[in-house]
Amino acid sequence: MTARAATKPRVLSGIQPSGILHLGNYFGAIRQHIALQDRHPGQALYFIADYHALTTLRNPEALRANVFESAVTYLALGLDPARALLFRQSDVPEVTELAWMLATVTGMGLLERAHSYKDKLANGITPTVGLFFYPVLMAADIIAYDATLVPVGKDQLQHVEIAQDMVTHFNEAYGPQDPVLVRPEPLPARAAVVPGLDGRKMSKSYGNTLPLFESGKKLRKLVGQVVTDSTPLGEPLPFATCNVVALLRLFCDPAELAQLETWYREGRRDGAPFGYGHAKMLLADKIEQLFAPARARREHFLTAEGRAEVEAVLARAAIAARALAQQTLERCRRACGLR
Ligand code: TYM
Predict the structure, then answer these.
(1) Distance, CA 152 to ligand 1 centroid (Å)?
(2) What single string gives the DSSP state of each residue in 117-141?
(3) Residue 154 designated active-site
């Protein structure tokens, strides 16, 4: 009944398919997820959180399409199915059973303090029991696979801490001498929370995202919507508080940033007036360049042959992930007296 001996670290993370994945997801999570498959080959698990997406998305066709697109995005960005598992959350229904068990040892106060829930309410999202319960399901996602490392963006850190609390409560209740569950540790991304077009956190639920694979005119039009103040062309621009700069920081090295700062301070570049429009063009170019190779790989996964490959990757990974979750569930059921 003992928790899995901590032989090798096990990495786990998830992403919601509630819309097209965006720069916040990439810099806050996906980039790190893909790097970790090299450091922990065979021990990295990533899933597409379709149960979670039900809290905001009620369109079955859109959900199916988003799940597929999320899988394609990971594969195009370099997820290697030989080193990491990529699967659908709902292919492992055991997590919902574990969520129930965890809920029975979780105080209401723990969930009432969740920032993400409070932010969503403050932003006018109608709360459901599902939205409130969300951190319990997320804890189950982590705990079901005995994950020890959870790479997430800074906005999700509190959820991982909540999962730690649940492990403590469950182990205190059912395994004080012989812990049943493994304690996960968060692995926060280096990047700060990525701002969206309007300066709030970039988020599918706020409709302020920049997708990864847009290009050409469409991308330039979207980048044009990044909110700035009304400083006229050629005047000094506020570098420290500018939303365009906050996004450019993700792409630029220190020398490029120093150069940009000079252009902002002077409102001029090479003797010519420099304004927000120019900064936005730089940003669009950076996005286009960074994701060009992945955009090309994505095209392959959208062909009939590529689609079949994606489905096969998800199906194979689901079998392996489910086997791990079943072992944890068996320990939990025995510990609680359900067997
Ligand atoms: P989600 O889908 O909102 O985001 C997926 C990952 O992207 C990061 N992220 C950001 N990072 C920086 N700036 C942003 N603007 C930004 N937006 C998103 C998130 O921190 C996250 O790492 N609850 C999770 C999904 C989930 C999960 C889990 C994660 C479900 N179960 C278990 C880890 C472990 C979520 O909604 O992420």
Answers:
(1) 6
(2) HHHHHHTTPPP-HHHHHHHHHHHHH
(3) no
